[in-house]
Amino acid sequence: MRTLPRWVLIPALLGGLLVLLPLVAMAARVQWDSFGALLTSESSLAALRLSLQTSATSTLACVILGVPMALLLARSDFPGLSLLRSLVLIPLVLPPVVGGIALLYTFGRQGLIGRHLEVLGVQIAFSTTAVVLAQTFVALPFLVISLEGALRTAGTRYEVAAASLGAKPSRVLSRVTLPLALPALLSGTVLSFARALGEFGATITFAGSLQGTTRTLPLEIYLQRESDPQAAIALSVVLMIVAVLIIAVARRRVPL
Amino acid sequence: MRARVRLAGAASGVVLALGAAGCGGGDASTTLVVYAAASLQAPFEELGEQFEAAHEDVEVEFSFAGSSTLVAQLQEGAPADVFASADTATMDRLTSAEPVDFASNTLMIAVPAGNPAHVRDLASLAREGVDLVVCAPEVPCGAASAKVEDSSGFTFAPVSEEQSVTDVLTKVTSGEADAGLVYVSDVRRAGDAVEGIEFAEAADAVNTYPITTVDGSAHEELGQEFVDLVTGGAGLAVLDEYGFAEA
Amino acid sequence: MSLTLRATVPDRDLDVALEVADGETLALVGPNGAGKSSILSLIEGTLRPATGRITLDDGVLTAPGTWVPPHDRAVTTLTQDPVLFPHLTVAGNIMFALRSHGVPRREARAATSQWLTEIDLAELASRRPSQLSGGQAQRVAIARALAAGPRLLLLDEPMAALDIDVAPALREQLRRSLAERTAIIVSHDVLDTVTLADRVAVLEHGRILEQGPTQDVLARPQESFTARLAGLNLLTGIWDGRVVRLGSDRSADALAGCPVGPLESGSRVRAAVRPARVGVVEEGGAAPPGATLLRRVVTGLEPFGDLVRVRAGGIAADLTPHQLAHLPLRPGDTVALCVRAEDVSIYPAH
What is residue A200's three-state secondary structure? Predict the structure, then answer.
């Protein structure tokens, strides 16, 4: 603190206010006497339930797909690797709506893959699967980026030592590589979950909006805004509390 | 949808800046700010050009978004001079307004070009295997759809209840949905991408578009002139061209 | 468990062939960048040679078309960094090695406590590596490496990172552990070489310059690096049947010494003498009987323990400060170095 120039304080405070003030302003608009009733309405509960379910599923999908991706990106060396690494991060910088459109052209009824699935009697559009796909699409880079970074920083010396002791590659992975990267894996998982929970643009573009099937909490908030702003505020506060809880829990376990 | 809201916000920011410049400048051009429901975009832009042609030194700035979104912004003090809503219920939320109804719009079934699910009438929409997309009941077009459903006695099981009528139209034009309930004006606007199917029950849910000047507007007279243009003969002609009916 | 290796790695300018017999410990010595670590990498399977063949007993580890992955080689490496897994306890680290070879959990647990007793760290079984001292960690690393039951043990500077007062105990531990094992040790420390290795191979610029039993190589070095390692002055000349001629012309110094074994007259020979046995004679003084005087120009003086090492013309002489007080030497001065015949061993140059 003593080593910092004093003027740093001003932009830092402004930045802090920019983040905190809107949250405070929203909390100030909450009508607390009807808060409980707004939250326990059928549509709110359905949205909350669906959001938690789909976010948990897509987080699981992120772990299953993202861990091997991070391992390959961190531990292999081939021409085009850095290009591939950038491509994997595209959903991170892409506007979610664009992601939704891209998913539509892939898994939609007329889409690249969806067309063939349709023939097999599988329809992804307008289903909860579509929500999970959209959330996984946008959340995956968070897991990959944090795990890959940790794996690169950790280096391979423990893995080389384990192999030298006779441990087979899958044992090295499960007993050495992953346990050592566990903090990064956890923080990546938490970030992915948070991103999935907040996902809006790709979902509304790709999956549609139907109570209990595709209308997640952010979509419900956006819709309630049209007719019942108070319900929208109440739900926003719930989402905010969940976000704060996630960060608090994650911070205690791992440095995010 | 989200992008559009941002656009509306950005536009009002620009207007604020222009307004301030106008105060200091004296004889700089006047900017009339019109907030209008998204479905009115095409006819209003045309009417805006007419208005600018008739008024030298006047520039018309539009902000098109969902009616509810616009009302919310107006309630927070957004600097608009004129507001046109897609239904009377939403307009009624602006307590101080004295609106004039200027157009109406009826629902129509929109199906993708070629009508792959062979939709013929309202009854087809209740058929199993037809992926129907409608507006959510919370927004004007959804309220109209619900009214149609009630009066027809059919029970629809839509695969999605969209936020706005344009979202419904997109689902139909892209072929994701087999059918959607949208306004006649939307079908007209979509051109060859969709086919429209009229149905008798639509008469039970006619949507009326009201327009008003906004309280506290700096250009109330000019605003009233724009309202007069819309509600007058020229306005009716343009609106008719885009599929709107008389109020 | 005998190892044979023949390999070239053009990228690293490496071209070597060596053998380690069953139960033997070979020390690989040489200056930095000579290729010692590359040889270990070849054997452990983290470096592929361009050409060559590595076999352990009858099994081929590396050959054209054959590549045994590191974990299947039964070759375990111990480095100066113990590389204990930080997320496992001390016992967990040793268990890991045993379980990696399919030892059932119960047996592995019993074997682990045996290993812990052996390295005298039973009371630290449940500690994390971060709670160990450097010496303790390295002892655990040794136990872990041995618990893996390697057919060949590779030691890469195993004591380089340890404090001087910890090293002796660990060296003793390694001496006991390596007694019956086939191993290769890379070290800069001559003490490691002497205590742990049966044979020495000297490596420079990716080539093996000399190799042989440790005592022979260190007592009769052929290369200046080996001589430095052994703490000897190494001189090269021609044996004229009586003395060593240190130059080609008539005025060349004639060094008297003791031939180790028969020498052929006119052949190239090496002469080794310890710096402590090199004296300095005062200006104008005569050589004592049986000693050789070598006139050389002083190039440098440096402290060496409680002595002062004087370097003159490629020969080092260790003098006491007291001796030096009588002879104020500066770089550039000419000095008469005095070597007694009985301190010089003479042997053929290869």
Answer: coil
